[in-house]
């Protein structure tokens, strides 16, 4: 009789443990579902999951914004966006001024000015070679970058290095010297100095 009581107690303890494990599993599944929902929401906001129609729409939107913008080169490093905006205020309503900076936060020396009207771009181009902070500005219409259209520039050869071809090295066939082993003629062909050979 006592053995039956102990087995019943063990079975009851195992059942409680099993229920506890099922409860924890359910909580973990709920948490995973919530994480998946949050991930989908973030991806949707960030635009990571884009269909081709949305990508085409964003490309046309970018082209439309670029048609209202100008590139301003040779901008003084101490220039602020407000000063650039005041300089181009006569052309039309300035929507945004972007002065590009490097990874340390220092300006690169050029800026983009976006207008509200596309007609302002023509007037802004007339400000080419005008002065701001004592520097002549280079103003041109902003071009739209097309992804994957980077111009190919072949590698230039270094005149100080020896000629290196892309074909694997093949030794020349051995020719016997007419002067005998180890003997070389007294005349030498003058060649350019190369410290690598």
UniProtKB/TrEMBL annotation:
Residues 68-144 form the RRM domain. The keyword RNA-binding applies. Pfam families: RRM_1. Residues 44-67 are annotated as: Disordered. SUPFAM superfamilies: RNA-binding domain, RBD (SSF54928). It comes from the Eukaryota. Transmembrane segments: none annotated. CDD domains: RRM_II_PABPs (cd12306). This is Polyadenylate-binding protein 2. The keyword RNA-binding applies. GO terms for molecular function: poly(A) binding. InterPro entries: Nucleotide-bd_a/b_plait_sf, RBD_domain_sf, RRM_dom. SMART domains: RRM. Keywords: RNA-binding.
């Amino acid at each position: 009789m006592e053995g039956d009581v102990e087995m019943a107690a063990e079975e009851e303890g195992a059942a409680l443990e099993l229920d506890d494990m099922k409860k924890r599993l359910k909580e973990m599944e709920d948490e995973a579902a919530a994480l998946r929902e949050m991930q989908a929401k973030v991806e949707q906001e960030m635009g990571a999951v884009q269909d081709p129609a949305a990508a085409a729409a964003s490309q046309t939107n970018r082209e439309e914004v670029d048609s209202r913008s100008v590139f301003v080169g040779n901008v003084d490093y101490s220039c602020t966006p407000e000063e650039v905006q005041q300089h181009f205020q006569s052309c039309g309503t300035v929507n945004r001024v972007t002065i590009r900076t490097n990874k340390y936060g220092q300006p690169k020396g050029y800026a983009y000015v976006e207008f509200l009207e596309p007609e302002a771009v023509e007037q802004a181009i007339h400000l080419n070679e005008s002065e701001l902070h004592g520097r002549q500005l280079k103003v041109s219409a902003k071009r739209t970058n097309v992804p994957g259209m980077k111009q190919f520039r072949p590698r230039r050869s270094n005149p100080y290095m020896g000629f290196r071809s892309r074909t694997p090295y093949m030794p020349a066939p051995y020719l016997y010297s007419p002067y005998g082993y180890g003997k070389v003629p007294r005349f030498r062909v003058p060649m350019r100095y190369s410290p690598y050979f």
